[in-house]
Amino acid sequence: xxxxxxxxxxxxxxxxxxxxxxxxxxxxxxxxxxxxxxxxxxxxxxxxxxxxxxxxxxxxxxxxxxxxxxxxxxxxxxxxxxxxxxxxxxxxxxxxxxxxxxxxxxxx
Length: 108
Description:
- Helix 1 (about 30-45) crosses helix 2 (about 50-70).
- The protein has helices at about 30-45, 50-70, 70-75, 80-85, 95; strands at about 1-5, 15-20, 25.
- The chain is about 50% helix and about 10% strand.
- About 20% of the residues are buried.
- It is mainly alpha-helical.
- The longest helix has 18 residues, at about 50-70.
- Strands 1-3-2 form a three-stranded mixed sheet, covered by helices on one side.
């Protein structure tokens, strides 16, 4: 995974890194867990053909924002994020990850 260190992306103090089309933009050093989290997102992006991923991500974030009325809670409850956070510490997860596994996290 290509990592570009910079001071601009991601925007905001709460976020340390953002994955855009499989390229990781980070404000500082990234540990293995963070990189694995972003690799999970890259797998999700590929499954939904990148643009589909971003459309679904935004739509679900808007739904979760309406549901939770809190920006951070909405973000943390997006199905793509829930899958990535649930498995970020398992560095072998991507070797056995079922296709479209993020859909399992849509229910709640």
